[in-house]
Give the backbone structure.
Amino acid sequence: MTPATEPGAAAVPRAHGWRWAPAWILAYVVLWPAPGYAETVLVLGALAAVIKLGASRFRGGTQLLSNPAWALTSVLFFAYWTPELVSAIDAVDPARALREAAVDLRYLPFLWLAASAVADPRGRRTTFGGLAIIVAIWTVDALLQAVSGTSPLFFGIEAIKLAISGHGMCSPEELAGVDRLSGVLGPCNLKLGQVIASLSPFLLYVGGRRLGTLGWLVAAAAVGVVVVLAGSRASWITYTLVLVLLLSGWRLLGWKKLLGVFAAGAVIVAVLGLTVPQVRERIMRTTPVLAANADAVDSALSGRARIWSAALCMVREQPLNGVGARGFREAFPACDPASGQVAAWGGGPALHAHQIVLEILSETGVFGLLMWLSGIALAWRAWRFADVAARERARPAMWALVVTVFPFNTHLAFYSTFWGGLTLLLVALYAGSLLAREPARAEGAA
C-alpha cells in the first residue's frame, strides 16, 4: 500500500496495511466449509505475514500495522494462548496439551496479517465488505436449501470432493441424521447458525450504510430466518444480541421502528414454529427449562446441566491451571455426575464445556480466567480511549466479537481449531481497525 496521495492530503502520514492481506482473510473464511484447505490458507498466510513483517521491520518501518495495533493484537493473542501452555504442566494428557499450545502459535502471525488487512480504508472496505458478501451468499444459499432441500453451494463442494477423492464430505449416517438447516457447511458440520449469527454484524453494517433502512431490514430478516431454521438456540441468543443489546438496529431505525421489527420477527418465528417441524421441535424442547424439575431443565438444555456440573468438578479438582486445553473429554468420565446413564447428546463423553467461562476454568483454571479477563480489560481500555472515528470504523468487528464471546450463552469450543480460529480472527479485525491511527479525513472513504 503506497502512502496516501489524495488531493489536499499532503500531510497524511504513511498508511498502514498490505494490499494482499484482505485476500488472505477472505479466502480463509470462504474455505471454512473445507477445513483442511482453510487451515492451509491460514498457515500460508501466517508464513507470508512473518516474511512481510520481518522485511518491513528490518527496513525500520511499520508498513503493516501501527505500533498500538501491533501491541494490542499480540497481547490479546497471548491472553488466549498462555493459558494453554500453563495448563499443559499437569494436564490430563500433557502431550496433547503441549501439542495444542505449540500448534496454536501459528495464529499469532496470522492475526498480524488479519489486523493489517483492516489497517487502511481500502483494506477495511475490502475486508468488511467481503465478509458481508460472504454472509449474504451463505444466507441466500441457506434460504434456497430451506425451499428446495439442497444447499447449492454444498452440493457443488460435495461434487468436487467426490471427483477428487471418491467419497463425499459427510458419511451416510450424518446425512440421514441431519435435523436442521446446514447450508454451505454441510450436515456433518452443523455450525451454520452460530457462524451466520456471529458474522451478521458485517452484513447488517454494510447493508445499512449502502442501502439504508431497506437494506438493513432485508438483511436482518433474511439472516433471522436462516438463524432460526439452523436450529441452534445459542445462535438465536447471539443474533438477538446483535439486534438489541448492541443496538445495530437502533442506530439506524430508532427504538419505535426497532420494536416494530421485533414484533414482525416474533410473527415470523411463530409461523416457522407452526410450519417447520424442526423449529417446532426446538421450541418445544426449550420450554421445559422453565420447570422446577432438574431433569427437565437438563433435557431442555440438551444435557448441558450435566456437562456444566462435570466442568465445575474439574475446577474443584484442578483449580489453578485446569485439566489442560482440549482435555475436557478425557477428564469428563471421572467427573460425570450421572455416570452410566445415557446422555441427552447420545453416547460418549462430552467434548467441551459448552460455555466460555466454564471452558476456560475447567481447561485452563483460574490462571486462564485471569488471563482472559486481562485481555478483555485491555480491549475495553483501547475502545474507551479511542476517538469517535476509530470506534466507528471498528464497530462491525466489535459487534461480532462481543456477541461471539457473550458469557451468558452456550458456546462452541474456543480452544478448538474452527471456533478458536473464528474468534481470534474477530479479535485481530477489532484491534487492527480500532488502532489504525488514521486521520479523520482519510476515513471518509472507508
Remarks:
- The two ends are 15 Å apart (CA to CA).
- Residues 1-15, 439-446 have pLDDT under 50 and may be disordered.
- The chain has one domain: 21-443.
- Residues 394 and 434 are 5 Å apart (CA to CA).
